[in-house]
Amino acid sequence: MENHNTNATAWEELQISNDFIFGKIMQDPKLCKKLLQRILPDLKIDHIEYPETQKAIRPDIDAKSVRLDVYVADSSNTVYDIEMQVAMSKELPKRTRYYQSLLDMQMLDKGESYEGLKPSYIIFICPFDQFGMGRHIYTFENICREDKDIFLEDGTTKIFLNAKGTMDDVSPGLKAFLDYVAGKKPADPFVDELEEAVKNARKNREWRREYMTLEMRDRVNREHAKAEGKAEGIIETGLDFGLSEEELLSRLQNKLNITFEAAKEYLEKFGKQTV
Questions:
Q1: Are 51 and 26 spatial neighbours (Cβ–Cβ below 8 Å)?
Q2: pTM for this prediction
C-alpha cells in the first residue's frame, strides 16, 4: 500500500498520527468535515459527500497505484485528499504532483471537457517540518513567476501541515489539532472527539485484523524488496567477474538460501538489466 505505514507499535498504542487509524476515524463525515473546516476556515463546507478511505486509484495496468487515506468531496464538488504522513521524504512534493494527476484522471471521462475538473485540495499532515521554516502550514498554488499577482487558477491547491511548527500562523483550533498529532493532549472539544474516536477504533476487532494483515503484507513486501536488491547486486558483481549462468545460479542459491527456481527468476529479471 503506497501510504500505509506499519511498524512494531502495538495496535493498542496506535495514535491518530498512524495513517491507518487516521483513515478509519475519518470515515465519520462529521469529524472529517470539522477537520477540513479547521484547515480551510475560508471555505463554507456544508457537508461531506461519499467519504472513501484508503481509496485505490490505478489509471492503467502499468502505472504506479496508490491508496489514499481519506478521499472526500463536499456539496460544492470540491475534492479533498487528506494524507497522514509519518516519515519525512524529499519525495513528498512530487508525490502531491502524482496524486493530483490521478485525481484529475478520476474526474474526467473520455471526451469530456476540461471544465469538468473540480477544484481539489491535497493535504499532507506531517509530524515534521518538510520545509524547515517553522510554519504550521505551507500552502502552494500555481502563480506566475514574473508577476506574483497573476494566478494560474487551475483549481489545485496543495497544503503541508506541520505538527512541529513554531510560528503563530494558524488558528487556535488548527494548532490544537496539530498538537494532538504531535502527541500532546490540548484542551479542545474537537481533540476530545478525536481522542474518543481513536479509543473506539482500537476496540474494533475487524479493524485490528485488517491492520495486522496489512502489517504482515508490508513486512513480506519489504523482505521481498530487500532480497531482490541483494540478488541484483550478486548478479551485477558476478557478471562483472565473467561468471557463467550456472555459477550465478549457484551463487544466488547459496547467498540467498533460495531454490533453483527462485534463483532462475532473479537471473531472468536482473541479468538482462545488468548486461
A1: yes
A2: 0.74
